[in-house]
Amino acid sequence: PLAVIGLSKVFNGPVREGVAAIEEAIPLMEGRADSIGSAFARGALAIGYATLGEFDKAQKAADDASAVADERGDLIAKLDALIAQSMVQSIRGDLDRAVPIARECVDRAEETGASACMVVSAWILGDAFHRQGRFGEPPIPLTTARVDATSYLCLGHRLLPAPGFPRTGRTRRHDSKMPVKYSIVKDRSEL
After folding, report:
1. What is the 3-state secondary structure (H, E, C) of 148-173?
2. What is the pTM for the complete model shown?
């Protein structure tokens, strides 16, 4: 339960509380055979650290997620670790590193039918393409939806903002061809 609370706060705020909860939960998960939960928690910790601008800690947590996944050989855990790796690079602004990682995750998730991993990694990839100005990229294949460099994954009528970057301006419809502006969080103390 502590890890789930932490995950929720990393993605919905307050981020610092989420990071603290996951830091407390990870040692409690040691020695259990839950490679998916363990990799996912470490990946969420990596995303939380990256959101706070603590990129060295973020990379270590993402590497730990990959190590857990590789050690136990679980495909979903490996996909979760790839998602964390690509998100950390995306939040850092290193889109040239984020794109191939996210592309690998999309491809592997599509091959295996891991639709949740496919949607998340496709969103990261489409977001990176958009931020790079790569609007002519071919669509990213998805089973139930398509996400390309000119559209964002939508929940109802709301766009999801770039990972780790609050969106400025008002909400735009998914069919807008206008670029969405992002601003880097300068004061991370309120996260």
Report:
1. CCCCCCEECCEECCCCCCCECCCCCC
2. 0.73
